[in-house]
Design a protein that fits this description.
The structure holds two protein chains of two kinds.
Chain A: H1 3-14, H2 20-32, H3 34-50, H4 61-80, H5 84-87, E1 110-111, H6 125-134, H7 139-150, E2 155-160, E3 169-175, E4 180-186, E5 195-203, E6 206-213, E7 220-223, E8 233-242, E9 252-257
Helix pairs in contact in A: 1-2, 1-3, 2-3, 6-7
Chain B: H1 6-12, H2 16-24, H3 28-50, H4 53-69, H5 81-99, H6 109-115, H7 130-144, H8 148-158, H9 164-171, H10 175-193
The chains are: A alpha+beta, B mainly alpha.
The structure holds zinc ion.
Zinc ion binds next to helix 1 and helix 3 of chain A.
Chain lengths: ~260, ~200
């Protein structure tokens, strides 16, 4: 098949109306002929546009639910099949979620990212994002993490342990542009039965509870609620409290000063 | 879509490529946005070919889940996602009909003709984004300039899954005539759309 033959057949091929043998010959030709390949691309676009001529109807809304449920299920199954390393990325979600609505716009939040354990992946943003996506992260929170990660200007603040001898440490990443962030803590002292970690904002006029969360292995990530960021913020910290949270912070486990 | 949250608005503002990029990272919200953007088109195309709502639904599920599982099967070419999606859909639908071994022998010129709506402003577009609805208006307008005997044959090929030879047999026309009509029809379509084709290259 030479170029003129191919040109004659292109439209029929793009519409799926070429005979099998002809179609094969055409494919062989365009594999080596850039010009015919370009023409074919054009023809395929025209053919696709043709689909627009039909009467459009919506499928039942139940179909969307079915498909999304299946997609979520498959993603979770992929996670279960993943390595222990990836599973470590599981985020512990706030128990007292009530303290935290969704939504909210700007300000500060915390991200914590896989420091030590993930150092081999650290340079590879794509990899990192994939892992976050595969982790059991609530979708809204996942989006928050993406927003922070996608921001090239994201900032990081170390949260050192307050008690001497503690190996715990934390970090948060936050994006001014996204107005979001996520907190991470590592090697946290274990929780006793009925205890939770509690995050705090420290502002000029006091300490403000910022949600509680748990972890079974001492590693946790916690997205902060930006809408609740107080004015005059001077620090953030984490304590260990009775389940349900406290109104005044106990002993600081981690604390970062935000005074500039 | 009722009750659109700010987040959905943010996602619906992403273009196809950006959504696909996020789908690669298993972002379910992006997947949902993509689904909502194109479900009517994909479903209607399937329905047009297989003519059975239940089979069409199953195919929509299969097509979208395939995107979810293997987003890399779409090779990023800016602005070309729609072309790719439609051709995947059409081919899958035609294969379905073939594999069910009930080739649409009953596909006749007249019902196909009924499906074509002259460029009256489509009233059935609430599911489409404004951008897609605009494109659709242009295409309906372009189709209106194609003589019906050419349009009919193109429909038999594209939605009926018939080859040129089969179309010739079906319509009792010489093969040469069928080939010519396909070419002329598609040329006219392209010519009518050329000024508008820029949207493909956004
Ligand atoms: Zn050539």
């Amino acid at each position: 098949m030479d170029c003129p033959d191919v040109r004659e057949l292109l439209d029929a091929y793009a519409l799926g109306a070429a005979e099998k043998r002809e179609a094969q010959q055409l494919e062989e030709h365009v594999a080596d002929c850039v010009r015919c390949w370009e023409e074919l691309t054009q023809a395929q676009q025209s053919a696709a546009l043709f689909a627009f001529s039909i009467t459009l109807q919506e499928p039942p809304t139940s179909l969307e639910r079915r498909i999304l449920a299946r997609a979520a299920q498959e993603r979770d199954a992929a996670l279960r099949g993943s390595t222990p390393l990836l599973r470590r990325l599981r985020i512990s979600w706030p128990v007292a979620a009530g303290a935290f609505g969704l939504a909210g716009a700007a300000a500060l939040a915390f991200t914590a990212f896989l420091q030590v354990q993930m150092s081999d992946l650290r340079d590879d943003r794509d990899n990192l994002m994939q892992q976050v996506a595969e982790a059991r992260v609530r979708l809204d929170d996942q989006n928050q993490i993406f927003n922070v990660l996608f921001d090239p200007n994201q900032q990081t603040k170390m949260m050192p342990a307050v008690a001497t001898g503690s190996s715990a440490w934390g970090e948060y990443h936050w994006s001014k542009t996204a107005g979001q962030g996520v907190l991470a803590c590592h090697d946290m002292p274990p929780l006793a039965e009925g205890e939770v970690y509690q995050a705090w904002f420290v502002a000029q006029d006091g300490q403000i509870p910022a949600g509680t969360f748990e972890s079974t292995d001492g590693d946790c990530w916690y997205p902060m609620e930006p809408a609740r960021t107080p004015v005059g913020l001077t620090g953030v910290g984490i304590t260990r409290e009775k389940r349900g949270g406290s109104n005044t912070p106990g002993e600081w486990l981690l604390f970062a000063s935000l005074r500039s | 879509m009722p009750d659109v949250s700010p987040e959905e608005i943010a996602y619906s503002g992403l273009d196809d490529e950006e959504l696909m990029e996020r789908i690669r990272y298993r972002d379910l919200k992006a997947f949902q946005a993509l689904y909502r953007r194109y479900t009517a088109l994909v479903y209607s195309t399937c329905l047009r070919v297989v003519r059975d709502p239940h089979i069409a639904e199953d195919m929509v599920q299969e097509i979208f889940l395939r995107i979810w599982r293997k987003p890399e099967s779409y090779v990023n070419q800016r602005g070309r996602f729609l072309t790719w999606l439609i051709s995947v859909t059409r081919n899958r639908a035609v294969d379905e009909v073939r594999s069910r071994n009930r080739r649409l022998r009953h596909e006749s010129a007249s019902p196909a003709e009924q499906d074509f709506q002259p460029p009256a402003p489509p009233a059935d577009d609430p599911a489409l984004s404004a951008e897609l609805a605009d494109q659709r208006r242009l295409i309906l307008g372009a189709l209106a300039v194609i003589p019906s005997e050419q349009r009919e044959i193109i429909q038999l090929a594209y939605f009926g899954g018939l080859t040129q030879q089969e179309i010739a047999e079906r319509l009792g026309q010489p093969l040469g005539t069928v080939k010519t009509r396909i070419r002329l029809g598609m040329q006219k379509l392209r010519a009518a759309l050329t000024p508008q084709l820029r949207w493909e290259d956004r």
